[in-house]
Write a structure and sequence with these properties.
The protein is an alpha+beta fold. The strands form six sheets. Strands 3-2-1-4-5 form a five-stranded antiparallel beta sheet. A five-stranded antiparallel beta sheet has the order 8-7-6-9-10. Strands 11-12-13-15-14 form a five-stranded mixed barrel. Strand 14 and strand 15 form a beta hairpin. Pfam families: S1.
Length: 550
């Protein structure tokens, strides 16, 4: 019940009531008159009301539903004399009906009426009920002067009937105070016992539900519905459902009763270890789907969160709704219980076959397979082979180091690759595209051996040495300690450097060159050449000739 229109005043009720009766009697005499003239042009009938007095009556009051005039000149008609030459046929009908009601009124019975406020005066209001007009003094109305009561529906109880004066007095205040007393009694009992009671859901809103408990409405806020936390009530209840509730508090000023459904039921978190444990497989119902994951109902007033990463072994899950539907029952594994935070996490994919297991049964390192590019990053591309994804690193795209995944591939491309590594425990697969092509260094090694003198162009400088390009897609490293007699700080990109191949590893595509060894090797080759040019019969004396001659 709303009480914002209630206004309580201390007024002399008896004096006001008597004044109202006097005014009613003086201005609303019920008389019998005779129709002496009907003037349809001016829409009035002239009625002789006795004592040589004529009064005007609007024709609209004596027309039937089809618009026909129900009386003729000479007919007698009952009217209410409203003074100043004004009379009313409808008021007379109401007066007659009221008199009949009063004559049949039983003082031993209680009469509760429901009508509409139609008039207002200083003393109070006129409430019309099925054509009958009852008087409601302002002090018994509980209607605030700040609102316009005309047209307002009210419920009241008859408190006084004056058969002599033909008046009926009703009180809205009486009913309201009864309701207040009943409300206070209900609230006191609810708050004192703190025991669950059965209530009926009357209305569901976005912020909670209004529940009728013993004839009084209380609000169950959406945060007080479930131990799961705030929930949308319309997903769990319908109007008319019966629920167990307990009273939380009562605001007397606002007359607001707060109820709780969750406090009327056991809290599963107080004994969660006996209900569920990590590793348990349970059946859950999908209750809410979000882009980042799914909330599932485990029963026992428990809810768990299924993160998007735990839905499928497929790492490219765009939205959970592509895999699950609201209301669907699924089996999940409990993977985390946070007692302090009252949170449960579950996994769906942990109960599904691992794609890596199936992959390792079918493929081995060295196998050549076809796959589809699913995504491209700064460091490479992910290629789906069967039901798993492998990484095709930029270094494995091509022997040409200027090429990478972004320059050579696009999402959706089908590529042929070689499996170069499988890490089953980490769930990682490494792929290579360049492994399907001949290595430039391998071809280079067929024509160059350790000790061969080569010339290269500086491509890059690092703290540990200098990279030079020997041929297309063939690079070599000159370590800092192998640069002598060249000075590291004086070397520039694009500069040609001559050196000796000191190491070739064609399996790992590595070549090292040394400038330091070049000088010693050139000296050794010069000595070897000198020895080849000498005659075998030449003696030491011949060699030094005249140097020993004086």
């Amino acid at each position: 019940m709303k009480f914002e229109d209630i206004e309580i005043e201390d007024v002399d009720f008896e004096a006001m009531l008597e004044e109202s009766f006097k005014k009613s009697e003086s201005r609303s005499d019920l008389v019998t008159g005779t129709v002496v003239k009907i003037d349809e042009k001016d829409n009035l009938a002239v009625v002789d009301i006795g004592g040589g007095r004529d009064a005007n009556l609007a024709l609209d009051e004596i027309r039937d539903e089809e618009g026909n005039i129900k009386f003729n000149v000479g007919d007698e008609i009952q009217v209410v004399n409203q003074g100043r030459g004004r009379i009313s046929y409808k008021a007379a009908l109401s007066r007659v009906a009221l008199n009949e009601f009063i004559s049949e009124y039983d003082e031993e019975q209680e009469y509760i009426i429901e009508g509409v406020v139609t008039k207002k005066n200083k003393g109070g209001y006129v409430v019309e009920v099925d054509g009958l007009e009852f008087f409601m003094p302002r002090t018994l109305s509980y209607l605030s002067s700040k609102i316009d009561p005309i047209g307002k529906k009210v419920k009241a109880v008859i408190v006084k009937v004056d058969k002599d004066k033909g008046s009926v007095v009703v009180s809205r205040k009486e009913l309201i105070e009864r309701d207040k007393a009943k409300t206070d009694e209900i609230v006191a009992e609810l708050l004192e016992n703190k025991e669950p009671v059965v209530g009926t859901i009357k209305k569901i809103t976005s912020y909670g539900m209004f529940v009728d408990v013993g004839g009084m409405d209380g609000l169950v806020h959406y945060s007080q519905i479930s131990h799961k936390g705030p929930v949308n009530p319309s997903k769990y209840f319908q109007e008319g459902d019966e629920v167990n509730v307990v009273a939380l508090e009562y605001d007397k000023k606002k007359r607001h009763l707060s109820l709780s459904i969750k406090d009327a039921n056991p809290d599963p978190w107080t004994d969660i270890d006996s209900i569920i444990g990590v590793g348990d497989t349970v059946t859950a119902t999908v209750s809410n789907i979000e882009p980042y994951g799914v909330f599932v109902d485990l029963g026992e007033d428990l809810e768990a969160f299924l993160h998007v990463s735990e839905i499928s072994w497929d790492k490219n899950v765009k939205h959970p709704k592509d895999y699950l539907n609201n209301g669907e029952d699924i089996n999940v594994e409990v993977i985390e219980i946070d007692k302090e935070g009252r949170r449960l996490r579950v996994s769906l994919k942990s109960l599904l076959p691992k794609p890596m297991d199936a992959f390792t049964q079918q493929y081995r390192v060295g196998d050549i397979v076809k796959g589809t590019v699913t995504s491209i990053t700064d460091f490479g591309a992910f290629v789906k082979v069967g039901s798993v994804e492998g990484l095709l690193h930029n270094q494995e795209i091509s022997w040409d180091k200027s090429k990478n995944a972004k320059s050579e591939l696009a999402v959706g491309d089908e590529v042929e690759v070689k499996i170069i590594k499988i890490d089953k425990d980490a769930g990682k697969i490494s792929l290579s595209k360049k492994a399907l092509e001949d290595s430039p260094i391998k071809a280079f090694a067929q024509n160059h051996k350790n000790g061969a003198i080569v010339t290269g162009t500086v491509k890059d400088k690092k703290d540990f040495g200098v990279f030079i390009a020997l041929e297309d897609n063939v690079d070599a490293l000159i370590r800092t300690e192998d640069l002598h007699p060249l000075k590291f700080d004086e070397i520039e990109k694009g500069q040609e450097i001559k050196g000796v191949i000191s190491f070739i590893d064609e399996n790992n595509d590595r070549i090292r060159v040394s400038v330091k060894r070049l000088e010693r090797q050139e000296e050794r080759e010069a000595m070897e050449q000198l020895n080849l040019n000498q005659d075998d019969s030449m003696t030491l004396g011949d060699a030094f000739g005249d140097k020993f001659k004086k």
